[in-house]
Amino acid sequence: MMSLLAVLLLLLVLGFLFWWLIVETEGVYLGRRMVILLYDLYASRYDRVKQFDDHADLMLISQAIMARIQPQADPLILDVATGAGRLPLIMARNGCFRGHVLGMDASRRMLDVARRKVAAERFEGYITLTRHDAGERLPFDDDAFDVVTCLEALEFLPDPQAALKEMCRVLRPGGALLTSIRIDTRWMPNRAWNEQKMRRELEALGMRDIRIEIWQEDYSQVWALKAGESEPTGAGARAQVPRLAHQVAIP
User: Fold this and answer.
1) Is 228 left (phi over 0), alpha (psi -120 to 50) or beta?
2) Cβ–Cβ under 8 Å, residues 110 and 83
3) 154-164: per-residue pLDDT in tens?
4) Hey, how many other C-beta atoms are within 10 angstroms of the C-beta on 160?
5) Would the pTM count as exceeding 0.85?
6) Strands annotated E in the chain
C-alpha cells in the first residue's frame, strides 16, 4: 500500500505538471489544439485576469507605433494572434490613428470577446477581425502591410521561426515590426527566445534597426524595420480588408 508520503509526493508532482503544462506554458507542449482550446475556455475571463493598463498601452504600444511610422497616420496593420483585440482597440482609441487593423486569431471565443468590444466602442471602421491560425502560412501577398504586430504570442505558435518569417514577408520594406519575447525563458525550453536568439533571427530575415526594450514584468518589446523602402500601403488598402478577412477566415 502506498504510504502517505508517497501519495503526497505524487500529488505534488502532478500538481506541478498541471501548473507547468496548463498554466505557465498555456498548453503549448500539448499541441496547438490544446492552446486554442484553453484560450476558448479562458476567453470570458481573459481581460479580468490580465488587467491590462490601457493608459500604459496607449503610450508604450499605440503612440510608440505611430512615432516609428510618422508622418504616416493611416497605416494598414496586421495583428497576429490578436486574442481579445488588445492591440486593435488601443490603436483605434488613439486620436491620431487614421488607419485600419486586421486582427487574426485561431480562438473563436477570444474573437467573440474582441468583436463585442469593437462594437461597443463603435470602432468597426478601424478594425476588422477574422479567424485564422497564426501557425499557418499567412495568406497575404509579400509587402502587404505597413506594420505587423504579434504580442505575447510568438512562443505559443507551433513554429516560432516560421511564423516570424511569415510576419516579415508580409511587411512592406521600411515597415515596422513589433513583437515580444519573454524575459524569463526557464519554463519554456526550446520555445521562448532570449535577446540574442531574437536578434539573430531578425537579422537573418533582413530586418534592421532592431531594438529590444523592457516593457512588462514578463515581456520585452522587440522592434525592427524591414530593410529597404517602399510607399506606405495606407488608407488606400482599407477597401481590401473585408476581402482579405473573408479570404483568411476559418469556418
Assistant:
1) left
2) yes
3) 999 989 999 99
4) 23
5) yes
6) 76-80, 100-105, 127-131, 145-150, 171-182, 207-214, 219-226
